Give the backbone structure.
Amino acid sequence: MIDNGLIPDAQQREQVLDPAKSFIVQAPAGSGKTTLLIQRYLRLLSYVDAPEEIVAITFTRKAAAEMRARVLNALAAADQPAGAETAHASLNRELSLAVLRRNQEAGWHIAENPQRLRIQTIDSLCAALTQQMPVLSTFGAQPEIVEDASEFYLEAVRATLTFIDRDHEIASDIERLFEHLDNDRARIESLLMEMLAKRDHWLRHLRAPRQELEESLQHSRQNAVQFVSQLLPSVLHEALLALLRYAAANLAAANISSAITACNELDPLAEAEVEHWHAVAELLLTNKGDWRKRFSVNEGFPAGNTSAEKSAAKIWKNRLETLIRSLASEEIFRQALHDVRALPPSRYVNQQWEILAVITRLLPYAVAQLNVVFQAHGKVDFSEVTQRALLALGDADAPTDLALALDHRIKHIMIDEFQDTSISQFKLIEKLIAGWEAGDGRSLFAVGDPMQSIYRFREAEVGLFLHARNNGIGHLILQPITLSANFRSQQGIIDWVNSAFAHIMPDRENVAMGAVAYAPSVAMQAALADDAVKVYPFWGRDDATEARQVVDIIKNSRLSDPTGTIAILVRNRNHLAAIVEHLSQARLRFRAIDIELLHHKPAVQDLLALTRVLINPSDQIAWFAVLHAPWCGLSLRDLNALAESNTDLIKKEMTMWQVINDKTCWHAVSADARVRLSRLKAVLHPCMSHRQRQSLRRTVEAVWLALGGPAANLRKGSEEEGNSIQNAQIYLDYLESHVQAGTVRDQLRFEQGLSKLYAKPDLAADDTLQIMTIHKAKGLEFDTVIVPGLGRAPRNHKKQLLKWMEQPNQIFPDENGARMDLLLAPIQEVGTANDSIYQWIEKLDQDKALFEADRLLYVAATRAKKFLHLLGHTGLSSDDDGKMTPSQPMAQSLLSRLWPSVAPIYHAKAECQDSSESDRVDNADCAIQGHNNYTGYRLPTEWTLPDAPPTVIWSRPRDHERIQDEIEFSWASEMARHVGNIVHRWLQRIAEDEMQNWTVMRVRTMRDQFKHNLLIDGMSGNDHEMESALDRVIAALTNAISDERGRWILSTQQYAQNELKITATIDHIPTNWIIDRTFLDSAGVRWIIDYKIGSHEGSDIDEFLDREKNRYQHQLDRYAHIMQQLDSREVRRGIYFPLICGWREW
């Protein structure tokens, strides 16, 4: 153990034990924060008149239980004989003995009455406040608190929307909202539910007047201008101003419209307004925000006509190039300048204000309905408890009796994880300490680490920690303390973290944006021999290869440290699919709590499909899932044959159940499939005949057992089999709880609830290998930490009905320097251009999310005690000289945030990669997303089934499935059909990537991948045919990304969609169609484009293209007709032939 004399912050640690003072402590990872909390709590216990005078607040029940246990253990250990002990243990003993003396003097009997230690969560504190004042909190009898109140939100929303049919004052507002969102009721319900869940964050904003909100918009614009102005080096002001004037004069003389002309009379640059900075951006940056490299007459730099003019023009261009070179390293300035282009207008247009008023009038009614629903059910959510607790305490000017009583009773408040405080919780703390002043015998102790604030999705606001540290809370000033000692990690890890995060995190804090500056730590553990941090670069997303590397790391770690603990930490649970699979294959048992979602487990997916068939026999997707399940086991080839050979099934003139019952419909499938269909038919007959006449749970379970569900999982390994049966039991129990009158009434809610359940962990596994999200790992530590998936970006956030953000007013602050501006914007109307105010708030929110991503990385890295392993992928390309260079990682990925520190490692690997490797860019898992490559275990055909009751025939309405275009391959060979399928899928992938990181070299290195795709697609034949098919796939894709027309089709476009599924009624038959690609061009014209993989060997290629246009014109005209029913814009059709770079449009 380290001696106190060697701890760099020992003096600060002793200082915070002073019970007469209030502190806010920044305690970085591994600094012993919990120990410090215990020690201060023990010191306070020895001073107070009663234990209840101290309230310790944590944010989880686990943390509260741990803190209480450690306090009691410290008191119990104090009576034990003291041996040789460290300074830390000696201090704990000293503090504990003082508490025991006070306990004996006052007769507290803490050991017998541990409940007197008020260590509780913030939610339990709020509940206790409402219990003490049931009238003031308006609760009356204390309701039950539920963690998931979504069903109550939905009930309240639906009750609110019924006012549209009544003579109610908000009926017109509801009607207007439906118009705004294209009568999409499901979306409106979802948006309102999300708003109710976050009501404590926006309710106080709804009464803001238009003038105040528009002043906030103006302040936001001024803040942005002030920020960008401060970032521009002052020594460049005059040079930039001269260039702006020169360009503006030339543009005006040439009568060219440009933002730059606004600077014609600007002087000095310090007085530049928004429009002037728009001009600076236009001059210095491209449309994408990069530094401009070429200058033309359009930017005010004409080439000149005479020799003198050309000479003068060259001098001005050289001056501009010199200026841009001097700014090249000013990355923050470049981004801020580009952001000026996205600034919102200074005022709302009337249409914006109208819908904003509609939403702000409607939301209070939804909240009122929610209160009615809560009262009817006797249940509330945590947000409601917090709001009622605030109500029970009253205001600072008019405190309630409860507030006055608490003010007398509570003398000391301690708050753990203060960086995770929400605005409502912060206001609660403000009310609890209202009237407290320094030196009055009361104290507030807040401890946390703003560098570990990662709970924005739970409304945590790190800016509150920064504000409290700078300004105190209420009238109470808090003395700031920053700890630096790290007792967890070895020297090598701390050195790397200090070096990396000094570049990753911002160099200065920003309360409004949640930007936290990095505070370095000092290692208290010596460095180990091996590299503390290892980075593993990958080229192209390759989940399988990355997973294999994770397995290798684990095996090597166990060889060197057999008893060491290992953790795999990921940003999102969906990053774990390949890793979990490879761990299971390697027989590495692991503990994963709340990681594997129940509905992702194969056994549960099969049970859900079976349930859907029994509830709704017309659910065709569920039928195919049942037929493909391992306990039925039809292959994809047989499923396709079954569908294509029964045209009445496609036309909805025959049901799948009729197909199963009619053996003449099985003529196209294999003998193996016929046996399996017979077995399925025998088992399902009695279930169909008794559908809704018996327990649905028992029916599903009986079918699953009879068809061999457990046996199908048994072959995957004993551990998997045991877990599968447990997972099946969880599902069946969940199903039973949702059945009413033999069926599930609300299947959508049933499946939404299922998606929130987790599979059973492997209870036989120990804690030496654990898998969890980075969020779950906070507060934990492991010998070895592995962080894979750094190259993957998070999912995009859904739109909100109302977007809001509070920002400190830096232009006109109040006397406390804390005046807040409110930015508020409604969701954009369906089919209209993006709302610029909404987009600006969204942009600010994304900036805050990026700062939080930095902190998420910090949390992951600081879990490691001995070794840290980082794995992530990015693109790899070659320059004109053939030199391999890594691409920038995906935006918003953790690797993009880490890039300043790890880029040299990626570049080094790219440079040392030999030619054979560089020609083979790893793309094994660039496999087409969503393509079903299922090759799992199937029960053997001869598997014996129990006897089944007699069959019964039933009928159902005809269903539909995807209609393949009959003329698509009517002329083509089998090889052409497979080539077409693969090219279509990869063109979809390239378009979804918006051409980023796609090069001819990359396509050529993917030959093995394409061969795998062709085999999966069912292509057979000799080697010559396969090579010929591969040549055609590669030729089509390389042409598409090289050809100017192909690049236009596949690159970034407005409202672009690929493989767009649309449904239309043709001759009274609902039919599905799939459009290869559709988008709006820059003129607002809708394009419908179909890819054709035909080729022409003759000389008259134009005649061939015209013939093909005539062949497919009816098909695309039908697409256009359907699309125009959805979108009234002009629609143009196009056919693109990538094999010959051919194009026809009309």
